[in-house]
TrEMBL record:
GO MF annotation, one: DNA binding
Membrane-spanning segments: 12-31
UniProt keyword annotations, A-Z: DNA-binding, Membrane, Receptor, Transmembrane, Transmembrane helix
Protein's UniProt name: ComEA family DNA-binding protein
GO cellular component terms listed in the entry, alphabetical order: type II protein secretion system complex
BP terms from Gene Ontology: DNA repair; protein secretion by the type II secretion system
SMART domains listed in its UniProt record: HhH1
SUPFAM superfamilies: RuvA domain 2-like
Domain of life: Bacteria
Residue ranges annotated for the Helix-hairpin-helix DNA-binding motif class domain, each copy included: 162-181, 192-211
Length: 215
């Protein structure tokens, strides 16, 4: 036992250094390895948030940019047609896509900066064209749209079942009622005669007065 104590006294400094080294090494290991996962996880989270933020910032504008509308362009342009364009484009963009104006186009009556709407009909008039056949679209500020004034009327005394169903508010049953009444009572002489058919009240007759003829 005395020999052991003598040995301990002889090497006590070395033992203390070894013990201190082990303690220091353990502390260093815990600090370095214990914090790395947290640091790496934080960086990964920031990277993920950054990517999500980028997608969020740019996805909405991209969706808006691909929104399309259909516009029917007629009149004095090189290529009259129905065009599919972006909703944020103006009339000047549509005219360019159609190849520009013809030599006869009345460009003074057109507002090239006008916004366009889905299903809109744009009519570019010719120089000296009768303005009574044009309808100015107030929302487009002087953009003119042609309105047809020569709609073909249906002869109620000659039209068959299919033709009669082209009339506003007239289905197969009402069309057959017209034919049955005509067969039984003879030709219709006026709009008032049509009012004698079941289902044709004053409101319906008002809608049909510009669609019918009785010759």
């Amino acid at each position: 036992m005395d020999k052991i104590l003598e040995k301990v006294k002889e090497y006590w400094k070395m033992i203390v250094l070894v013990v201190c080294g082990l303690i220091a090494g353990g502390i260093f290991y815990v600090l370095t390895n214990g914090q790395k996962p947290t640091t790496n996880l934080s960086v990964e989270n920031l990277s993920s948030v950054s990517r999500q933020s980028s997608v969020s910032k740019f996805s909405e504008p991209n969706e808006k940019s691909v929104s399309k509308i259909m516009v029917d362009l007629k009149g004095a342009v090189t290529k009259p047609n129905v065009y599919q364009i972006s909703s944020d484009e103006r009339l000047v963009d549509l005219i360019k896509e159609a190849g520009g104006f013809t030599d006869q186009a009345d460009q003074k009556s057109i507002n090239l900066s006008a916004k366009l709407k889905d299903e809109e009909v744009i009519y570019v008039p010719k120089i000296g064209e009768n303005s009574s056949t044009e309808n100015t679209d107030s929302s487009a500020n002087s953009v003119t749209s042609q309105v047809s004034t020569t709609t073909e009327k249906i002869n109620i005394n000659q039209a068959d079942l299919t033709e009669l169903q082209k009339l506003t508010g007239v289905g197969q049953k009402k069309a057959q009622d017209i034919i049955d009444f005509r067969t039984k009572n003879g030709d219709f002489k006026s709009l008032e005669d049509l009012g004698k058919v079941s289902g044709f009240g004053d409101k319906t007759l008002e809608k049909l007065k510009d669609e019918l003829c009785f010759e």
